[in-house]
Amino acid sequence: MATESIRISHTEALDLLRDAESNVHSFDARAASGSHEARFFSFDSPQPVEAQDAATLRSCNNAQRLIQCDVFIAGSGPIGCTYAREILEKCDPSFLRPRNAVYMAEIGAQESPIVGAHLKNAVKYQKDIDSFVHVIQGALQPVSVPLSDTHQSTLGGNSWTPPLNSKQNQLVISGQNPQQARGTNLGATAVTRAVGGMATHWTCACPTPHSEETSESPVERNELDSLLARARELVKVDSTVFDESIRHTIVKNILTDSFPNRNVRSIPLAVQRHAKSSSGFVTWSGSNTVLGETVNDPRFTLASEHRVTQLIVHPSFPGAVAGVLMRDLKTNSDYLVNARVYIIACGAVCTPQILYNSDIRPPSLGRYLTEQSMAFCQIVLSKKYIQSIENTTNPLWQDLIKQHRAKHPLDPLPIPFRDLDPQIMIPYSRAFPWHAQIHRDAFSYGDVGPRSDPRVVVDLRFFGKGDIVSENRVDFSNTEPNKRPEHTDLYGMPQATFHVVRSDADRDRDQKMMNDMTAVANSLGGYLPGSEPQFMEPGLAMHITGTTRIGNDRKTSVANACSKVWGFSNLWVGGNNVIPDSTASNPTLTSMAYALKGAADVIQCLQC
């Protein structure tokens, strides 16, 4: 028999937290494990309870929906997993509960048998990278979609249409946003709701940020470099995995000769050679890589398809979070989590969204937003470069080509089918303030299809930074505290609306970047028809930063250098949203570095 979903109101949440308050403020983690267990509530679905009336039943059900832990983490991407692993590995165990010390909630489902794994590791996608494009497209959910024009002049008969000359003359469906102006939208911005987050399909590029990309950081560069090095180890960054590839070497040599002063190099990628390197497969890092063995730690719990609705601020201590209200999306029932520390790491849009919905609204929340511009094209390698492979004097290449010809005598190309794709970058510099990737990979666009052999196609993606402007922001549907917002997204949270405009300086830089990309492209070959040089839809980079930026001034930042939210003793934020700088490079490694610093601060809080 179906169980009626149970909702917990804000008032009921406060009542439950008052009942559990002794556990929050007087919990002795070094007591015997038996005394700990007495304070735990079941994580399973509540069992039927005999009750004399509905009020008693509701009270009992609510009590069973109170979950207690030491650390609550919202978000299961690389940042949330960095916090979880660091805390469980580095914190003195005597300060943590023996079970369920870290409770992680993820709004999406687990889509891989391996928790948080990169989906591109499947053999079929490594054999056909273009087929992964559709996986990415299916994973991405748009953030803010302006209303569509619903007028259909050829719709005849008595079919229903929205009323004319009325506030209801446009349809608000599929998460469309009536508040979004098209001219200030980041129309291609999307989120991935899944265990592992964006890391289930990311490119794994982990370049080191240039000094100009960290000029606003409150963390000293020497310390940041140390944190970046630790982040590389955590996500297993390697710049050599593709060095034996014929195409990688050819493209790298062409660019090095054509642009000798640009520091052309292999992209530092979070990737490892497959155990059987002769297979031509690699293992891409995902959130599972960051999490490591923590996933099997009995002190760790992951709840998928649970929406974090709001943080409950302590009624007597405004500088402390007392609990988190979350909803099991499968049963539509609410749960209340009572922890000592709270970490929100749900991405650059959903993190400020949760804070906003919790009536935690510092002046800088959602502001100082920067997003990278993108220029894109695809080329087909010049005949002379293919001929140079055919005429190679490299004995290793000669052997590989010979083996390939023996198996596939009709193939017109001297490139083995399992030759790894090129993965080259031209890093950001003062003279060329953009980040360039010359490679082959799957995005939500750019599949080659049957137009050309993918072995001779190379993608060029150039990423440009944007000026830091307070007015560039994401805000959320107006709502009074504890009341339903006027407009909500598909998951019932306040609708995000973008107000982002590129400055004249941004546009000037973008044009120079486009000119640079065409010069690089022309050194390699001719444009693939349909993929000539173009600027991509704003937001497509999906590298938004700044919406909960860290800093030394609470007037212009949301959190301090340790990512602790100003004015709170037990609330941290994590993700690209904490980066206070304008960046052109891929930001994930930098976000992980800040998360490592934040985790050290959390551990100090837990052990004090």
Question: What features would you highlight for this structure?
Answer:
GMC_OxRtase_C, globular, 608 residues, five-stranded parallel sheet, P2Ox-like, seven-stranded antiparallel sheet, oxidoreductase, flavoprotein, alpha/beta, 25 strands
Please characterize this protein's 3D structure:
With 608 residues, the chain is α/β, with parallel strands linked by helices. The chain is 27% helix and 17% strand. It has helices at residues 10-26, 33-37, 54-64, 78-90, 123-127, 132-139, 221-235, 246-258, 287-291, 347-357, 383-390, 395-407, 504-524, 588-607; strands at 66-68, 71-74, 102-105, 140-142, 145-146, 176-177, 190-192, 237-238, 265-266, 269-273, 282-284, 300-303, 306-313, 321-328, 333-338, 341-344, 373-381, 423-426, 434-439, 457-464, 473-476, 496-499, 525-527, 534-535, 571-573. The strands form seven sheets. Strands 9, 17, 18, 19, 20, 23 and 24 form a seven-stranded antiparallel beta sheet that branches. A five-stranded parallel beta sheet has the order 12-3-2-16-25, covered by helices on one side. The chain has a four-stranded mixed beta sheet with strand order 1-15-14-13. β18 and β19 form a beta hairpin. α4 packs parallel to α14 and α7 crosses α14. The longest helix has 21 residues, at 504-524. The model is unreliable at 23-57 (pLDDT under 50). Homotetramer. Residues 487-595 form the Glucose-methanol-choline oxidoreductase C-terminal domain. Its cofactor is FAD.
